[in-house]
Amino acid sequence: MSTEPIVHEQQITAKPLRPQEGLGVLHLFYRINLAVWREKSSDDRAIALDYLETLIATARQQPQTQIVTLAMFARADLGFMVLTPDLHDLNALEKSIASSLGPDVLEPEFTYLSMTEKSEYTQKEEDYAQEIEKSEGLARGSAEAEAKLAVFRERIRHYTHDRLYPVLPEWEYFCFYPMSKKRAPGQNWYALNHAQRRELMGGHMRVGRTYAGRVRQLVTGSTGLDDWEWGVTLFAHDPYEIKAIVYEMRFDEVSNNYSEFGPFFNGLPLPLPEIYRRVLLV
Ligand code: 76R
Fold this sequence. Notes:
Mean pLDDT: 94
Bound molecules: ligand 76R
Order of helices and strands: EHHEEHEHHEEEHEEHHEEH
Oligomer: single chain
Number of helices: 9
Strand content: 15-25%
Largest sheet: 8 strands, antiparallel, barrel
Distance between the termini: 20 Å
Low-confidence stretches: 1-6
Helix content: 25-40%
């Protein structure tokens, strides 16, 4: 057998399938079946490990594509978080990763499909115009108001772009969990009107902002895509901050009255060779 890593040309014949906005996102957490893995010859193992590394390196060179490789804690072994614009690429990459180490070696423990999205609660230009008229007396159409509105537009454009096309931080700690908003009698988020939801989200954002620089969140939407409504990905330098923010958020009304949470998956973003050493005993 050749010792060259083989990267199969992904023969994607379908036309690109890009959502009208945002990127496709997959969280893939695998267990490694060590019994199956150890049955392979050491040559085959080396080829498989090279193959997976090349696959990830090649995919990372595609435009707007980011992949975090993870050494997971307890609930899984090897993890990937993948962002890419074309859902065919996302699908093909997922299948290639799943079979990369040979049949039955990577066993999916938990997977999650979502898409980046902008927020429904971003302040509207009209509301901002009213706010500066009321609080600062800047009349509509005045040069001063227009100048402020131009800055506002630019800030929102930048912010919306960041949410749809984020640049993932290279921070030391990773945490993922899915969540939904409740639809129980008396606790039905979807029965609230937009103004009520915006008001409540204001509280959430105030807590969130106090963690700026310590916790980075990426909330990706998954209604219709997976079993929960959002995937919450948090990055931190210090794992203490993950525990702190999730705890503090529990006192916030959006989290404590209107949210339910799925399982938590924590891991350490690392280069694949380092993860191999830990989980495959190479
Ligand atoms: O978009 C932004 O980054 C700023 C405003 C903001 C929105 C719109 C924001 C800020 N969040 C938004 C939306 Mn959030 N967030 C969570 C969780 O564990 C829990 O209790 C909840 C999980 C955390 C820890 C967190 C952290 N956020 C959302 C949404 C979409 C809701 C919807 O559309 O109905 C969800 C599900 C969600 C959940 N949030 C922040 C944070 C942090 C740290 C911030 C501040 C970011 C910053 O300003 O740097």
